C-alpha cells in the first residue's frame, strides 16, 4: 500500500502530527507503511472515504471515541509474560530484597495487555510469598490504549503469551479456560489494577510515589523531546532511592536526565535526592 494522491499524503502527515502532539508517538520513515495500513483500517471501519476525511474528523474535539480508535490503532501492543529476563532477574535478585516495607508500589507504565504487570506480581509472590504480596504489594498497569487495558483486566491469554513462562509458574498462577486460553488466577489478579493513561499528559495523577517503575519497550516510540519529558515525569513520580527499569536495549544516555544508570536498562533515583 502506498500513498499516491498528494492530498492523502498531506492528510497522512496531519494525522501523524496529531498523534505526535496527542500522545508523543513518532513514526519514523521505515514504520510509516505500517501506520498507513492501520489508518486505512480505521477509515474502512468508520466509513471514511479517505485519509483526508479522517484527518478533518480528528480536528473535532468532541469526537473522543474516534480519537481513541485512532490512538488504539496506531499503538503497537506486542508483549508477553516474562519478557526480557535480564531486567526481571535484576528486579528479583537486587531490588525486591530491598523492598522490606509496607505498601510497596510498582508501576508498569506502558502495560499493554497486562502481561508485564502480572509477571511482576508472580515474581514478587515467588520471592516473598503470597501473604507478603497480599498485605504489602500493589501494582498499577497503565496504557494509552483502552482496548488493551480491558484485556489486562480480563487477564485471559493465548498460549503464545506464556510460551516463555516456566511450566511450574503456569501451573501455579494460571487456570485453563478452554479454547487454548489461560486466565491469571484471582490471587495474582488482585495484586494488579489497570488504568487508561497517556504518559504524555503531565502532571501525572498520583498522590503516592512508586518504588519501582517498569517503562519497557515504549520509549523508542517517542521522539527525543518526549522521551526526555516522560522519564523526568516518571522520576518525579518515584520515591527517593526508587528504580526505573527500561529495556536492556533502551539507553537514556542521549538524554539529560536525573536518573543514575546502574546497569543495562536499570536506573535509580538518587537516595539523597534534593528537590
Ligand atoms: C510494545 S508495548 C510494551 C508492553 C510492555 N511494557 C512490554 O515491555 O512488553 C508498548 C505499549 O505502550 C503504549 N503506549 C504508547 N504510547 C503511549 C502513551 N503516550 N502513553 C501510555 N502508553 C503508551 C502502547 O499502547 C503499547 O501498549
Question: Any overview of this molecule?
Answer:
The protein has helices at residues 6-23, 32-46, 51-58, 64-74, 85-95, 115-128, 130-136, 146-154, 167-173, 186-189, 224-236; strands spanning 104-108, 137-143, 156-158, 174-178, 181-184, 192-196, 210-214, 238-245, 260-263, 266-268. The chain is of the alpha/beta class. It has two domains: 6-74, Chemotaxis Receptor Methyltransferase Cher, domain 1 (Orthogonal Bundle); 85-268, Rossmann fold (3-Layer(aba) Sandwich), CATH 3.40.50. Strands 6-2-1-7-8-10-9 form a seven-stranded mixed β-sheet. Strands 3-5-4 form a three-stranded antiparallel β-sheet. Strand 7 (210-214), helix 11 and strand 8 form a beta-alpha-beta unit. Helix 2 runs antiparallel to helix 4 (64-74). It is globular, with a radius of gyration of 20 Å. 35% of the residues are buried. S-adenosylmethionine (SAM) is lined by residues 23-25, 75-79, 83, 110, 112, 116, 143-145, 148, 198-200, 216-218, 221.
Q: What's the domain count? A: 2
Question: Which CATH-level-2 architecture of the largest domain?
Answer: 3-Layer(aba) Sandwich
Oligomer: single chain
Which molecules are bound in this entry? Answer: S-adenosylmethionine
Q: So how many helices?
A: 11
How many strand units? Answer: 10
Amino acid at each position: 500500500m502506498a500513498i499516491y494522491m498528494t492530498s492523502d499524503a498531506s492528510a497522512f502527515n496531519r494525522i501523524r502530527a496529531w498523534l505526535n502532539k496527542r500522545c508523543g508517538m513518532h513514526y519514523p520513515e521505515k514504520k510509516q507503511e505500517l501506520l498507513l495500513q492501520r489508518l486505512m483500517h480505521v477509515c474502512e471501519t468508520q466509513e471514511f472515504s479517505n485519509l483526508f476525511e479522517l484527518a478533518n474528523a480528528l480536528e473535532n474535539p468532541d469526537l473522543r471515541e474516534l480519537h481513541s480508535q485512532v490512538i488504539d490503532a496506531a499503538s503497537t501492543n506486542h508483549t508477553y509474560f516474562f519478557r526480557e529476563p535480564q531486567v526481571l532477574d535484576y528486579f528479583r535478585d537486587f531490588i525486591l530484597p530491598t523492598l522490606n516495607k509496607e505498601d510497596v508500589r510498582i508501576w508498569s507504565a506502558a502495560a499493554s495487555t497486562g502481561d508485564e504487570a502480572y509477571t511482576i506480581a508472580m515474581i514478587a509472590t515467588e520471592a516473598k510469598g503470597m501473604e507478603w504480596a497480599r498485605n504489602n504489594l500493589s501494582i498499577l498497569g497503565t496504557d494509552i490504549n483502552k482496548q488493551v487495558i480491558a484485556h489486562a483486566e480480563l487477564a485471559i491469554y493465548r498460549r503464545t503469551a506464556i510460551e516463555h513462562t516456566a511450566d511450574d509458574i503456569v501451573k501455579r498462577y494460571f487456570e485453563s479456560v478452554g479454547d487454548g486460553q489461560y486466565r491469571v488466577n484471582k490471587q495474582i489478579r488482585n495484586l494488579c489494577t489497570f488504568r487508561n493513561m497517556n504518559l504524555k499528559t503531565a502532571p501525572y495523577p498520583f498522590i503516592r510515589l512508586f518504588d519501582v517503575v517498569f517503562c519497557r519497550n515504549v520509549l523508542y516510540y517517542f521522539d527525543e523531546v518526549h522521551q526526555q519529558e516522560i522519564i523526568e515525569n516518571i522520576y518525579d513520580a518515584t520515591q527517593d532511592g526508587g528504580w526505573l527499569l527500561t529495556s536492556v536495549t533502551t539507553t537514556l544516555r542521549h538524554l539529560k536526565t536525573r536518573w543514575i544508570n546502574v546497569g543495562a536498562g536499570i536506573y535509580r533515583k538518587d537516595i539523597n535526592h534534593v528537590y
